[in-house]
Write a structure and sequence with these properties.
With about 575 residues, this protein is of the alpha+beta class. Strands 4-3-2-1-5-6 form a six-stranded mixed beta sheet. It has a six-stranded mixed beta sheet with strand order 12-11-10-8-13-14, with helices on both faces. It has a four-stranded antiparallel beta sheet with strand order 21-28-27-24. The longest helix has 28 residues, at about 295-325. The chain is globular, with a radius of gyration of 24 Å.
Length: about 575
């Protein structure tokens, strides 16, 4: 296997052959999602950086990678010994455009894959780099990736109505109503979890995400799923066509009439099939908001998934309490073993995080067989995991204590917990956006001069992707209100580099609350049923109201789980849920 230095040398030779002064790598596949199949993990192949977000620019003399605050420490470690330098997003480091203007002369030619860049990103670059030449084409890195994994071709299967709560025909009709409202004839969807939701189909083409590589065309007359044809070997209500016929058939199916595309989710190659006057641009694909608002059956499925997950988690915590664990990997394996004992459990919803001591300060640290830390002495362990169940998706983080906690660790944990509780308990008027609630989770840390920089809450799919839009709770001014049925995480954290990390995460569902003369109000239903780490709670910082909230949460957990656990789990449940 050639190392990163040799890969960059070969890429530069290809750049020279193609008359390019720089080459941009978005880190995306043609569907532009957060995660990609192994065959499209170009960023990881060339740089050795394994995070889920990052873009690369290679010039004749430099190679740089940008990523966000979740991965700053991880990227420093993984890029060591490679030709890549780290540039940090949303800091004083130059962004992509600034870097190009600083390092490359006007007229420089910048190449990239037309399949892995969105229409909106391309158009934005055209405006900002008007004195440079953008050169879209085929992915150059594939020419040097000799052992590139094959494209996924996993079984596709259909979910029953008692799981999804709405037929695919009814979902398509809802989308057609939106087409009529917008005065367009068709839309083309490339977002894989939107396609899975529309069709009530699932697969496993991307690790942890139950989706399949495809495109979905919907018009007022036709519905066509573009996918490798032999993957659907069961009755399906819509037309199936091979994916490689997309460019030939879509212009025919659209009949030259006006359509709608999401420019953030459609790549440049696909958008080139249409003239600009033929399309209107959407802020979000039509299914995205439908998918985010879970129906009653989906919510009931999510509740069941969280109940099953809690049974596994408490049995794991009971075993961990009795016998301990040697290292970070053993902790992950112990929890996975418990989850696997239930027949409705399928597989993890993302790559688990088990981070002991200073590794906890690496927000998305993930141990593996070649890189893991022993659990030796006292310390905190951040355990961020989740599961895909037949009825739903879970995502939970608990910070666990090994040995004895310092006063500083207990104070920090309690400040994080206070923000976590404050967000979950808040009543808010309809039309409230996530960014309007973000400070609730940070207020106590801010008052202590502390902060965290990842999002406070992300949407979660129903037996779909663990990260789901369009809503978020974060400082970003995303103009999407929180609405009934949305499932979102509540996960403040605190990270002290070289020392430890703390994160506490529950999933919460938006529900109707009260209506007054001022507004209709919403609030949150907590889905996660796992106790907090009581030995890390410093009662000097907890108010009587917060104590009551914690005790009631723990009482609810005990009432739901008592009698359903192993002997070890029952013993731990009694300890963990006793009144503070």
């Amino acid at each position: 296997m050639i190392d990163s230095n040799e890969k960059v040398r070969k890429l530069r030779a290809l750049m020279k052959e193609n008359g390019l002064d720089a080459y941009y790598i978005s880190g995306k596949d043609p569907h532009l999602g957060e995660y990609s199949p192994l065959s499209w993990r170009i960023r990881e192949f060339i740089s050795s950086f394994t995070g889920s977000n990052g873009e690369i620019l290679v010039t004749e003399k430099s190679a740089v990678l940008w990523t966000d605050s979740r991965y700053f420490i991880q990227a420093e470690n993984e890029l060591a010994g490679t030709p890549f330098s780290l540039l940090r997003e949303n800091t004083d480091d130059p962004d992509l455009v600034s870097y190009i203007k600083e390092k490359l002369p006007e007229g420089a030619r910048i190449g990239f894959s037309e399949e892995s860049v969105s229409l909106s990103f391309h158009d934005e670059l055209l405006k900002k780099l008007e004195n440079y030449v953008l050169v879209p084409g085929k992915e150059l890195v594939f020419s040097i990736w000799e052992d590139r994994p094959v494209l996924p071709d996993n079984p596709v299967y259909s979910l029953s109505l008692d799981i999804v709560g709405e037929s695919e025909e009814d979902k398509i009709n809802r989308i057609r109503e939106k087409l009529k409202e917008d005065g367009v004839y068709w839309t083309l969807i490339a977002d894989l979890d939107d396609i899975a939701w529309c069709t009530n189909l699932r697969s496993s083409d991307i690790p942890y995400d139950p989706v399949f590589m495809s495109y979905l065309f919907i018009s007022l007359e036709d519905v066509v799923l573009f996918i490798k044809k032999d993957r659907i070997d069961f009755p399906f209500p819509f037309r199936i066509e091979d994916e490689d016929r997309l460019k030939d058939l879509v212009p025919v199916l659209s009949k030259g009439r006006k359509g709608a595309l999401n420019p953030k989710k459609i790549n440049l190659f696909i958008s080139s099939m249409f003239r600009k006057e033929e399309i209107i641009l959407l802020k979000e694909d039509y299914p995205t908001l439908f998918k985010a608002r879970k129906n009653a059956i989906e919510l009931e499925g999510m509740r069941r998934a969280h109940l099953l997950d809690a049974i596994s988690y408490l049995n794991f915590l009971g075993k961990l309490e009795r016998q301990g664990a040697r290292d970070e990997l053993e902790v992950l394996n112990m929890l996975e073993e418990e989850r696997k004992k239930h027949k409705e459990y399928l597989y993890p919803s993302f790559g688990g995080i088990s981070a002991f001591g200073e590794n906890g300060a690496i927000v998305h640290y993930a141990p593996d067989r070649n890189n893991y830390k022993k659990i030796d002495g006292s310390g905190l362990l951040v355990l961020d995991t989740g599961g895909q169940y037949e009825s739903g998706t879970t995502d939970i983080t608990r910070t666990l204590l090994f040995g004895k906690a310092s006063e500083k660790e207990k104070r920090d944990y309690t400040l994080v917990l206070k923000g976590h509780l404050a967000l979950a308990a808040q009543r808010f008027p309809e039309r409230t956006r996530g960014y309007q609630l973000d400070v609730l989770a940070k207020q106590f840390m801010w008052n202590a001069g502390l902060n965290f920089f990842h999002g406070t809450g992300h949407g979660v799919g129903m037996y779909l992707n663990v990260h789901e839009g369009p809503m978020r709770i974060s400082p970003a001014a995303i103009d999407i209100p929180l609405e009934k049925g949305m499932v979102i995480s509540d996960e403040p954290g605190l990270y002290r580099k070289g020392m430890y990390g703390i994160r506490i995460e529950n999933l919460i569902a938006v529900k109707e609350d009260v209506t007054t003369e001022f507004s209709s109000f919403l609030s949150f239903e907590i889905l996660t049923l796992v106790p907090y780490e009581r030995r890390l709670i410093d009662m000097r910082y907890i108010t009587a109201l917060e104590k009551d909230m914690i005790d009631k949460y723990h009482q609810w957990i005990r009432s739901e789980l008592e009698g359903k656990l192993s002997e070890e789990g029952e013993e731990y449940l009694v300890f963990a849920t006793s009144p503070l």
